[in-house]
Write a structure and sequence with these properties.
Layout (H helix, E strand, L loop, with lengths): L2 H20 L9 H7 L4 H7 L3 H21 L4 H14 L1 H11 L2 H23 L8 H23 L7 H17 L1
Helix pairs in contact: 1-4, 1-6, 4-7, 5-9, 7-8
Length: 184
Amino acid sequence: MKHETIKFNTKKQLSASLKKLLEEKPLSKITISELANECGLNRKTFYYHFNDVRQLLEWTFKQEAVDIFTEYGRMSNFTESVAFTVEYLNKNKAFLTNVYNSIGGFVLTEFFRGNFIEVIEMSIALHEKEPGVVISDNFRGFLSSFYSQALTGQMLELLNTKTVVREADITDYTIDSLDEFRKL
């Protein structure tokens, strides 16, 4: 196995351990020794890859974004993309809630907004292929920003609810709002 592959797999192990521990407790209570022990590594191995737990958290979110973008690329429409994101949120709710409570919403806001902008731009491109639909660059930029921020806000709000949110509700509400917007 190549050295780069081994390094990547070790980082993934540490990341998985961090996610598991963040389901149980806040970031400030997680030690490097605990992380290393959780995945059967030693502290030196951790420090070879990361300076501290926050750097590992940042790497984890970047990797999650790569995985999500890869999955989005396999999807053919906006509804599938939003449903996938809500499913991701429900599946990772404890982890994401502890991150939000530990370091605030900025990291999660950027994480979700960055993902949603791609989804919204993809959806707009699909609508532009319909006969008679022409969207100016300025309006396309406005729509991308507006809806990505709105969906990000919804996702962060869902973290604060105790119930599991159905993907269909969010996608239906979002599609309905887009349809109503088109009527204006």
